[in-house]
Write a structure and sequence with these properties.
The protein is mainly alpha-helical and 559 residues long. It has two domains: 364 residues, Up-down Bundle (Growth Hormone, Chain: A); 50 residues, no CATH class. It is a multi-pass membrane protein. It holds the Pfam family MFS_1. InterPro entries: MFS, MFS_dom, MFS_trans_sf.
């Protein structure tokens, strides 16, 4: 039997045990989109006019020419002074909002127009900022306390905040709740994704990894439907939050990642989980001694690497935290992976959320636009599965980025009277960037070794949240004056992101590296067969070839 953990997962195959993790996290994925892009319907740009004071009897005009033109803020009005007879401009303090589309919104309830208009973008961006802040520590917590523990805590907390924030009385409290809700986003989704991938056999990783995003797409479409039926924002948020509590029973049947348990030395717990998995999947695993030997080797490799990274005599907590970050840049391959994945994730998040939030610039019904946006994500989780499985992660990521750049750069050239063409190009760009989002997350996971996988993904998530945080402000800054700038900026960003992926290697049909040493010297190339060679990283940081047997990735899981 090969001495790596992927062989154990191959023996387990894909059965009831794996499906529990997959189904549970897929359900959670369907719940989060309605909160991640809540600003589309909860704090939208709403037509409004200045509400004149009751004692204003000599009203002349507002500073707008069209009372329902959202490009004019109606921030002031003009009256004639009864004493001097001169015209005087007064600032509006209250506004009347158009209720033909939305009965009640955060925008209308808290008067987020004129000098307070920036708070609309803030409402959306604070969620992203919470995700950014959480990216600094969620990966560390998942590596320190376990994948299941962090998923359980974050999902329960998310559910409570989501429902509670719907009935907070002040905008300050609502914005604070948005921030804390955002901090639970990566802790639940990213850690949950890692948990699913770490219990999945090699040959099913691409299919299951990408399929996880199908429910996100349906969640986006469902949110559009709910918003169409429920036009009052507090009731809408309550309706879309209550299903979160139905995830709690799933926690009772899920378990910890046996791969993580092996790396941190909790071998008996890992063995217990593997035996439960074997029973549920109705397969037979090798004797306990063989399984423990594999886990011992994985732990020793991880322990050796940590000892080499941590400077002797430095025991301060600060130094340990610095080491957690700098380990991502200590070795050549790890440094390359970290920098490229950070750039790629920054762009993909900016495009993904930016194109979703661009409903106000689409020129069509916002409910229809978001539904189409969600539908555009489905091909990335269905049609692209066999493509990614056949052609690999790297090629599909680069091609998707370049095609996305092409359609977005062409979009401003569409004639103004052909709204359908501009919308089609935007939705096509969203479909392509959704493909990148699903593939690049899997690609990043396979590039990072188990012992620091959460840290590596966390660093990428940190930069992606910067992109997601900036997206609402980019749209808000130019949506009224130069809307064509939005697809141009996004298109050029996609072009750059596609180019930076080129130096990376393919991870298709390779085992997940468990340690940094394996990443630097033990990466199996695609379709490696028995007798081919792979590299071994020596103490000087150079590689040398040696012959090793390859894991039979298509081996019958019941053997």
């Amino acid at each position: 039997m090969e001495d790596d953990f992927d062989t154990i997962l191959t023996k387990l195959g894909t059965g009831k045990w794996n499906i529990i993790f997959i189904a549970a996290m897929s359900y959670w994925y369907s719940l989060v989109p309605s909160h991640a892009v809540a600003g589309v319907f909860l704090a939208p740009l709403v037509n409004h006019t200045c509400h004149l004071p009751s004692n204003t009897t000599t009203f002349i005009s507002t500073n707008t020419t069209t009372t329902h033109d959202i490009d004019d803020d109606s921030c002031s009005f003009v009256v004639r002074d009864n004493t001097t007879g001169h015209l005087v401009e007064e600032l509006c303090t209250q506004w009347d909002f158009d209720t033909s589309t939305f009965v009640s919104t955060v925008t209308s309830e808290f008067q987020l127009v004129c000098e307070r208009r920036y708070l609309r973008a803030t409402y959306q961006s604070l969620y992203m900022f919470g995700m950014l802040v959480a990216a600094c520590f969620s990966g560390y917590l998942a590596d320190r306390f376990g994948r299941y523990t962090i998923v359980a805590i974050s999902t329960v907390t998310y559910s409570i905040i989501a429902v509670g924030s719907a009935w907070l009385p002040s905008l300050s409290w609502i914005l604070a709740a948005r921030f804390f809700l955002g901090t639970m986003h990566p802790a639940s989704l990213l850690t949950g994704f890692i948990l699913v991938m770490e219990v999945t056999e090699v040959r099913m990783r691409a299919t299951i990894g990408i399929a996880q995003f199908i429910t996100w797409s349906f969640g986006t479409m469902l949110f559009s439907g709910m918003a169409y039926l429920v036009r009052e924002w507090r009731l809408l948020q309550t309706v879309m939050s209550i299903p979160c509590f139905l995830f709690i029973p799933c926690l009772c049947v899920m378990g910890e990642s046996p791969r993580w348990l092996a790396v941190v030395g909790q071998h008996q717990r890992a063995l217990k989980e593997l035996r439960r998995a074997a029973k549920w999947n109705k397969v037979t695993l090798p004797p306990d001694q063989e399984l423990l030997a594999i886990m011992q080797k994985v732990q020793e490799q991880a322990s050796t690497n940590k000892q080499n990274i941590t400077s002797q005599g430095i025991c301060s907590t600060l130094q340990q935290l610095i080491n957690k970050v700098t380990v991502l840049f200590r070795t050549p391959r790890m440094r390359l992976v970290t920098i490229i994945m950070c750039v790629a994730h920054f762009v993909v998040a900016m495009l993904f959320y930016g194109l979703t939030l661009a409903a106000s610039t689409s020129g069509i019904n916002p409910f229809l636009f978001l539904a189409l946006s969600g539908a555009a994500e489905i091909p990335s989780s269905t049609f692209f599965i066999p493509i990614v499985t056949r052609y690999g992660r790297k090629k599909i990521t680069i091609i998707s980025y370049f095609l996305c750049a092409a359609v977005l750069l062409v979009q401003p050239l569409a004639p103004s009277d052909l709204t359908w063409l501009a919308v089609t190009l935007t939705i096509t760009g969203k479909m392509l960037v959704s493909c990148v989002y699903s593939v690049i997350t899997l690609y990043n996971l396979e590039l990072n070794p188990t012992e620091i996988r959460s840290q590596g993904l966390g660093a990428s998530l940190l930069t992606s949240r910067c992109g997601a945080f900036l997206a609402p402000f980019i749209i808000s800054a130019v949506e009224k004056t130069h809307p064509w700038v939005i697809p141009v900026v996004f298109g050029l960003s996609a072009l750059v992101a596609g180019a930076v992926i080129l130096p990376l290697w393919e991870t298709q049909n390779t085992r997940l590296p468990d340690t940094l040493a394996e990443l630097e010297g033990h990466i199996l190339p695609p379709n490696t067969t028995e007798g081919q060679t792979k590299s071994s990283y020596n103490s000087t940081g150079k590689t040398k070839a040696k012959s090793e047997d390859k894991i039979n990735l298509t081996e019958d899981a019941s053997m």
